[in-house]
User: Which sequence fits this backbone?
């Protein structure tokens, strides 16, 4: 069986990762601009279906001119189904009622209110902070577990690889102009859990090989062989998972589209980092510690 020199090519992987993360973040922050849903900013969201033949987002938006400030209208799922968003206000209930009244007055009995969500600006800020803290706590928990289960050097590699996955996935998400929400945070946590599972499989094989081969072979070779030995398992598991997530993305509808998109990007990036980044970081840290001694 042919062996790939993953560790020997690790510096190319580092360069690719740096370009992906910095490129996507710079483009997402300064060109596209980050977008946050009402989960984090507060406001009102109304999902409606209009049973009229000729209706588009611009038609709906013009109904609220001079009545509700800052309204955004997005077409979802069907031709005549729309998401109407209004920014944070002191009284979200009043804004939601106004949106419903305008729609019912314009379309009479031909409008169906499918969903109404209201979040105040204070709650939105609190949810945003809790979402960030959830990711930080997850990383700290993984750091402690891997350091206890393996060695501190492995924990270093695992957590840096997970930070890499979170940054790369978030950067791509921003760059394509999608909107951050609580389901997106849930998807990022899912990606972190999936990625560490892949990484631990590789680390476990490295540890087993170290017991037998460390005295007779360089650490770099042991790590590279371990990655090759687990490669088919990693790739097959990721491809089958991606197939399921792709179905979710294509057929799951607008409600979970962002969630599925994050999983698609995150699992792809996580698989790449499990092969090219996590173990390579362990090798570099191991060499650095050995050199210092």
Assistant:
């Amino acid at each position: 069986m042919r062996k790939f020199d993953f560790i020997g090519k690790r510096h190319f992987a580092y360069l690719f990762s740096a370009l992906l993360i910095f490129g996507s973040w710079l483009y997402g922050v300064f060109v596209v601009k980050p977008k946050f849903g009402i989960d984090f900013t507060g406001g009102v969201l109304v999902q409606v279906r209009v049973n009229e033949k000729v209706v588009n987002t611009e038609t709906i938006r013009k109904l609220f001119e001079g009545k509700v400030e800052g309204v955004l209208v997005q077409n979802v799922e069907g031709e005549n189904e729309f998401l109407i968003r209004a920014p944070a206000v002191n009284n979200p209930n009043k804004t939601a009622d106004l949106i419903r009244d305008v729609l019912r007055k314009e379309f009479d009995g031909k409008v169906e209110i499918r969903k109404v969500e209201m979040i105040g600006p204070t709650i939105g800020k609190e949810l945003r902070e809790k979402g960030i803290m959830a990711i930080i706590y997850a990383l700290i928990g993984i750091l402690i577990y891997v350091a206890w289960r393996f060695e501190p050097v492995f924990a270093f590699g695992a957590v840096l690889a997970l930070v890499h996955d979170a940054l790369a996935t978030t950067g791509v998400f921003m760059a394509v102009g999608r909107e951050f929400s609580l389901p997106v945070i849930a998807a990022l946590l899912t990606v972190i859990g999936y990625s560490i599972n892949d990484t631990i499989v590789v680390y476990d094989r490295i540890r087993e090989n170290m017991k037998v081969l460390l005295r007779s072979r360089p650490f770099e070779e042991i790590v590279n062989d371990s990655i090759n030995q687990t490669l088919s398992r990693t790739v097959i598991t990721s491809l089958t998972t991606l197939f399921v997530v792709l179905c979710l993305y294509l057929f799951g509808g607008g409600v979970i589209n962002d969630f599925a998109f994050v999983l698609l990007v995150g699992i792809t990036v996580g698989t790449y980092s499990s092969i090219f980044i996590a173990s390579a970081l362990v090798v570099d840290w191991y060499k650095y510690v050995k050199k210092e001694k």
The chain has two domains: 10-36+124-292, 43-119. The domain at 43-119 is CATH 3.30.70.3400 (Alpha-Beta Plaits).
